[in-house]
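step: validate -> pass
step: tokenize input -> pass
step: predict -> running
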Amino acid sequence: MLPGEIIESFELGKLPSGPRVLSQLIAAVRKPNVQITDVAELFLSDPALTARVVAVCNSTYYSQGEKTADIRQAVMRLGLQEVSRIVQIVMLTDFKRYPTHLYTNASSHFWERSLHTAAVTDEISDRNPMAYTAAIMHLVGIWVLCSIFPAGNMSIGERELELQAQLEQLRLGLTFAKAGGQALKMWGFAPAICDAVLWQLAPSAIEVVEHRELARILNRAVAITNWHYGVRNEQTLIRSDLTITDVEDCNRKAAERVAKIGLGG
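step: predict -> pass
step: emit ->
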């Protein structure tokens, strides 16, 4: 099957509905005069997602002793940007229920890796919200590919995403990065985020400067995360653009943050 035919076969209805709500929320957050009521209305189409977001707002990590009854209260107490980040974590957690049968690692591994990369991105980008979203979503193509191709004898198990993409291209005809970038486009995400995910392994290929810089941040975060998962070589270090000490410190902070979120179950 050709790459174009594979993309045309995408059935995003088989995956969680959260990304579509998230893309609308991110667009709303970027508006200068957005109203809380406008944000609350975005969640009307997905009450299950709303309930999970409110539950996370009431967790020990976020509540600080104050209870939240609904999205309006969450926005008033935590702010739009923080609620947006919670939605992204909850949305990503929904993907853990979906199989990753083409890979040796379970869904929980890719969930944790995505959160870790997002936390690393915060460390190296001064909490750039677009970079955070790109990092949260950078592995979503794995679930997209698994929604298309049936379980078989295929088993992709590389720790380094560059090598994983090469195996995907060879065995499936499409990489997780291309599948993810196209899915984000179909869900309605901003072009910069779509491009960053699509070209996360080759950011220099992007022509639009702003999109290229976002992809470069993600590429560095991916390299730093590769190091955390055992790919400790000179090439990884060069891509990270950090010293070994800084890479390990960045990964330590990211790992602590993921552990504190408390959504691993």
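step: describe -> The mean pLDDT is 90.
step: cleanup -> pass
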